[in-house]
């Protein structure tokens, strides 16, 4: 169904376009009965006036679609904070939609937003998806979390994040290190982070003690049940969510001699455990970069921007 314009509202109400604009912006100079009539037409036609009204005043308002996989994801929420902050700074509107890792939902949202004539998309990428349906939208696109050919991408140094944690633990006397990760079908959070663990233990001739789950807290809790059957002194977790689940299992079993680390610099974990060791990827700054990229209409060349890992700790193991 065709979306109504401010001109349509004016025609249906039997008034001028400028009168509709004055009503929308609550300006003076409009009779009360005319105002009531215009507002009634706006309500009956589900007209969303904000963007149209501002454009009528000569302000070009750009709107961007932000497609997240999970609204409850700590890492994605940090990135979204940077995105929304930067969009607000640039006087841009935005719509946030959650696809719950569904490509079909993503396609539906993209189709809906294209019809609403958004100016571009920032999409938290689903593993192994090529996003061909985004290529012909005529909109600028930035993908976050996966490196997909043909798109501007924001990615994170997953391999070195795990390697950095492992080297820190090894340096501080931890020689029996297990790994709890995301399923390896995910090429970044899953496979790359696990590969760093695998390469490290092979180099050090350590035993491979690993288990895999999903992105949820309870998944780390469940995997921990099998992991602690082994003789270990540390557990490296592929995400802070997994680390939270592992830590809760150890707490309930009164096990306090195993160091648990994560990735994501989760504020909840920092609050619950001031000694928590984690990795920061400067998620908020990467969100700002995503906006700077999607709003840059001069640059047509696609680029991949890598954000490096930073070890976050409180000297809990340092002997110095």
UniProtKB/TrEMBL annotation:
<keyword id="KW-0804">Transcription</keyword>
<protein>
    <submittedName>
        <fullName>Transcriptional regulator, LacI family</fullName>
    </submittedName>
</protein>
<dbReference type="Pfam" id="PF00532">
    <property type="entry name" value="Peripla_BP_1"/>
</dbReference>
<dbReference type="GO" id="GO:0000976">
    <property type="term" value="F:transcription cis-regulatory region binding"/>
</dbReference>
<dbReference type="InterPro" id="IPR000843">
    <property type="entry name" value="HTH_LacI"/>
</dbReference>
<dbReference type="InterPro" id="IPR010982">
    <property type="entry name" value="Lambda_DNA-bd_dom_sf"/>
</dbReference>
<dbReference type="Pfam" id="PF00356">
    <property type="entry name" value="LacI"/>
</dbReference>
<keyword id="KW-0805">Transcription regulation</keyword>
<dbReference type="InterPro" id="IPR028082">
    <property type="entry name" value="Peripla_BP_I"/>
</dbReference>
<dbReference type="InterPro" id="IPR001761">
    <property type="entry name" value="Peripla_BP/Lac1_sug-bd_dom"/>
</dbReference>
<dbReference type="GO" id="GO:0003700">
    <property type="term" value="F:DNA-binding transcription factor activity"/>
</dbReference>
<keyword id="KW-0238">DNA-binding</keyword>
<feature type="domain" description="HTH lacI-type">
    <location>
        <begin position="5"/>
        <end position="58"/>
    </location>
</feature>
